[in-house]
Amino acid sequence: MPLLVEAYRQANDPDNARGYFDHMINSGYKPDDRCTASTIAAYAKQNFLDKALDLLLTLEKDGFQPGITTYTVLVDWFGKLQLVEEAEATLRKITEEDNAPFEVHVSLCDMYSRAFLELKARKHLKILEAKKEFVSLVEKNRFSIVWKGSEAFVTIQVNY
């Protein structure tokens, strides 16, 4: 079932992804973090934030605790929507569990630069620069940030 959820996520069909997700739960399987993240990502592709948050609230009420994979999807989505406070709150949840993954810092750097929060963007850029994944992306010309005065133009081409 988790593969069907992922397949519908990639096909931009959040309703069928959620249908199989619910079927999996009703069949007695407990969703893992990856499957939940796929369902949330399916909603993110169609920008159905209300449905995604409803799913998370329902799961948390039933005892599910989202993990780093689900939180990473949320940080990326909140970043694209420039919901700075929500992205930062979700980041705090990630750092309580472990270090934030590379993709989270990419999303935050992008979000802060789009919101013209240069100091915060530079902070996450420094974190990125310390990671070996960043060096690889720069060498392949897949990541660049151009600062012009107080504005930043970010080009990020990272495949998650």
TrEMBL record:
NCBIfam families tied to this protein: PPR (TIGR00756)
PANTHER family given in the database record: OS02G0611400 PROTEIN, OS07G0661900 PROTEIN
Matches recorded under InterPro entries: PPR_rpt (IPR002885)
Name this protein carries in UniProt: Pentatricopeptide repeat-containing protein
Pfam families xrefs: PPR
Annotated organism of origin: Zingiber officinale (Ginger)
